[in-house]
């Protein structure tokens, strides 16, 4: 492929991303400008019901801390649903004994993130006005965080999902302040990632996607759009769901007072073959599901040329710059296997697909 042709294809795909972003901003610009202001912390006399859904998998301590943090919220009209995702360490039954005021759902196996939390959404949606998905390794930083998120959602009729700011645990360093979709790379870009919080994200703002670690969803969205996409085992479901919600004429907002501490653990290494495989499977699946067919064909052609020519060198450089020891040939094997396993007739990533490179603990 000639350089000019390659550039033309790239620009064509990039243009679609700009067009999509422009339409999203344009359709709500009047709403954003007319509704900016300070969120009231004052409770409403008739508070909406919020279902807080926490997924547990072999992690008693983090889930316990998350439950305690939720109980301390000043917004009292909420029910906590613990979905145990096939834990084998007894943490699910232990938590059920210790927290009888919570609702418990026990999955027989590890279903992944989307399929796991969907069990909780199904159980809660008809009894709740809002669904809050919250990672079990997150704790609310302030007592009025949930109140502020609900107030924003109630005051903006177009709000389908509300996200917030997620900090690295007990620091002022941002892990995510929501984000936007990068259609050329097929991934979400987190606002503020690894930045010290200087107030740049202390405003109510429409965003492109909300992290699944802290996602307040209107029950109307669940009725209109459906559940989280179970085609992903873990990762990328938050991008996909955010895109579907936005395309259904809802908007996504960041609430600056909706803040949690996230204990970002070393659950995987950046160049672990399972992580690399899952990342590229998700990338391909996300683009296949969400790009128009013509743009998907262009994007896939560019991606394949890149993967065959430049990607190995790029990964080798990244490994060298990291503090990990990894074999670039093994990493590329995971990438190539992900490309080979991408199946248009059965587009989904399953646990056993990821575990071909080693069991998940």
Radius of gyration of CA atoms, rounded to a whole number: 21 Å
Task: Spell out the helices and strands N to C.
Answer: HEHEHEHEEHEEEEEEHHEHHHHH
Report the oligomer. single chain
The percent range for strand residues is: 15-25%
Q: What's the CATH topology label of the largest domain?
A: Spore Coat Polysaccharide Biosynthesis Protein SpsA, Chain A
Helicity, as a percent range: 40-55%
Characterization of the model:
- Helix 8 runs antiparallel to helix 9 and helix 10 crosses helix 11.
- The N terminus is likely disordered.
- It is globular, with a radius of gyration of 21 Å.
- It starts with a helix and ends in a 7-residue tail after the last helix.
- 44% of the residues lie in helices and 19% in strands.
- Strand 2, helix 3 and strand 3 form a beta-alpha-beta unit.
- The protein has twelve helices and twelve strands.
- By secondary structure, the chain is α/β, with parallel strands linked by helices.
- The strands form two sheets. Strands 1, 2, 3, 4, 5, 6, 7, 10, 11 and 12 form a ten-stranded mixed β-sheet that branches. A two-stranded antiparallel ribbon has the order 8-9.
- The protein folds into two domains: 213 residues, Alpha-Beta Complex (Spore Coat Polysaccharide Biosynthesis Protein SpsA, Chain A), CATH 3.90.550.60; 85 residues, no CATH class.
């Amino acid at each position: 492929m000639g350089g000019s042709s390659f550039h033309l294809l790239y620009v064509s795909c990039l243009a679609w991303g700009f067009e999509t972003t422009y339409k999203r901003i344009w359709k709500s610009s009047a709403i954003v400008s007319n509704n900016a202001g300070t969120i009231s912390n004052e409770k409403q006399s008739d508070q909406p019901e919020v279902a807080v859904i926490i997924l547990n998998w072999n992690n008693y301590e983090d889930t316990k801390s998350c439950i305690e943090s939720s109980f301390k919220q000043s917004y009292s009209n909420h029910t906590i649903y613990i979905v145990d995702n096939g834990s084998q360490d007894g943490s699910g039954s232990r938590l059920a004994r210790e927290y009888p005021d919570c609702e418990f759902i026990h999955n027989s196996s590890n279903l992944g993130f989307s399929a796991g939390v969907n069990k909780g959404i199904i159980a809660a949606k008809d009894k709740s006005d809002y669904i809050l998905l919250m990672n079990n390794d997150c704790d609310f930083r302030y007592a009025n965080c949930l109140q502020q998120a609900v107030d924003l959602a109630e005051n903006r009729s177009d709000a389908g999902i509300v996200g917030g700011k997620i900090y690295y645990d007990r620091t002022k360093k941002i892990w995510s302040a929501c984000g936007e979709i990068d259609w050329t790379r097929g991934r979400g870009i987190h606002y503020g990632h690894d930045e010290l919080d200087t107030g740049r994200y202390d405003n109510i703002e429409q965003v492109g996607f909300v992290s699944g670690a802290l996602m307040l969803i209107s029950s109307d969205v669940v009725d209109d759009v459906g559940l989280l996409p179970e085609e992903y085992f873990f990762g990328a479901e938050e991008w996909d769901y955010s895109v579907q919600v936005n395309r259904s004429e809802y908007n996504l907002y960041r609430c600056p007072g909706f803040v949690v501490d996230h204990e970002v653990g070393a659950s995987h290494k950046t160049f672990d073959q399972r992580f690399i495989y899952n990342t590229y499977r998700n990338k391909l699946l996300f683009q296949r599901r969400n790009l128009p067919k013509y743009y998907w064909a262009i994007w896939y052609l560019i991606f394949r040329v890149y993967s065959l020519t430049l990607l190995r060198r790029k990964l080798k450089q990244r490994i060298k710059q990291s503090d990990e020891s990894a074999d670039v040939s093994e990493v590329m094997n995971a990438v190539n296997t992900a490309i080979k396993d991408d199946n248009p007739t059965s587009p989904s990533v399953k646990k056993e697909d990821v575990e071909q490179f080693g069991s998940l603990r």
